[in-house]
Every structure is written in structure tokens, then in C-alpha cells.
Design brief:
It is built from ten helices and no strands. By secondary structure, it is an all-alpha fold. The protein is globular and about 45 Å long. The two termini are 23 Å apart.
């Protein structure tokens, strides 16, 4: 429990400082949060080390992201635009993921790892796009609602991947 509390306090303090710094430079706060995650995470400094606390905080972050998207999302609108959303979302995934996967395989990455990385790169940043649309006052416009619907498609797409833990070896 102390590990979770410590990790949470460290991340809150670092993200608060990042928010102040990004505001001073007139940069979106999300970029500061991403920088904090990269710098404090296991890949760089391991201030927040892998373990149960990091797993819990990651799952909490995804749950909060889905909640935020749910506030901006209408199931009725999704149903009305389902064909466009499914075609646009699928097309964007394929057009970005396929060439990247092939390039990574050409560079020697195993096929499963290359496919996962290619698919991950193809997904739009839900938090970034929805925040940008809100800042521009375009969240309730036709293209704003369509963009949110495609983002929901991107959020829902990796759900089957979470059931397969075989990809975890190359991520750690």
C-alpha cells in the first residue's frame, strides 16, 4: 500500500510541476504529463518501478480516460454514423499499422512485436484530440462528434489484445 501511495504522490507532484511548466511555455499540459511518464517510468529513471502500484495506476488512468470519452460520446450518434466510423477507423488503422509493421519486421523485429507496435502507433491519442477539439470549441460540431466516434473505435479496438499476455515479454 505504501508503494502505491508513494508512486501516486510522486506522480501527482511531478505532473503538477509539468502543468505549471507547460502553461508557462503555452504548450498543452498533456505533453508535460507524457514527459513525466517517460522520465519517471521504468524505461528512463525507474522512479516509479514496474509492479503492482504501476499496474494499478495504469489501469486507473485507462478507466479515467474511458470515463472522459464517455462524457463526450453519444451511443446514438455512434449508431447513426457506424458505417463511417468503422470504415474510417479501420482504414486509418490499416494504412498506418501495415507499413510500420512491415518496416519493423524488415529491421529485425519479431512479427508479433512489430504488429503490436504498428497497431499501437496507428491509434490516435484520444486525450489529445478530444482536448484540442474542446479548446477550439469544435467538440459538438459534426466533424468533432465523428472524430470522437472514431476515437472510441480506437479505444475499443485493443480490448482483445489485453486478453493475450504473450506480447508482454518484449515490452518489459
Amino acid at each position: 500500500m505504501q508503494d502505491l501511495l508513494g508512486a501516486t504522490l510522486i506522480l501527482l507532484a511531478a505532473c503538477s510541476l509539468a502543468a505549471v511548466a507547460t502553461a508557462a511555455f503555452r504548450v498543452p499540459a498533456l505533453l508535460g504529463y507524457l514527459a513525466v511518464g517517460a522520465l519517471l517510468g521504468p524505461s528512463v529513471s525507474s522512479v516509479v518501478a514496474p509492479g503492482e502500484a504501476l499496474d494499478f495506476l495504469s489501469e486507473l488512468g485507462v478507466a479515467l480516460l474511458l470515463f472522459m470519452v464517455g462524457l463526450e460520446f453519444s451511443l446514438g450518434h455512434f449508431w447513426l454514423t457506424r458505417k463511417t466510423v468503422l470504415v474510417a477507423g479501420s482504414l486509418q488503422m490499416v494504412v498506418v499499422a501495415a507499413p510500420l509493421t512491415l518496416m519493423l519486421m524488415g529491421l529485425g523485429q519479431p512479427a508479433q512485436s512489430a504488429a503490436l507496435l504498428g497497431a499501437a502507433a496507428a491509434m490516435s491519442s484520444t486525450a489529445l484530440v478530444s482536448r484540442q477539439l474542446a479548446d477550439q470549441g469544435e467538440l459538438t460540431t459534426r466533424h468533432g462528434r465523428s472524430a470522437i466516434a472514431v476515437l472510441v473505435f480506437h479505444v475499443a479496438r485493443p480490448v482483445p489484445w489485453t486478453q493475450d499476455k504473450s506480447h508482454a515479454a518484449f515490452l518489459s
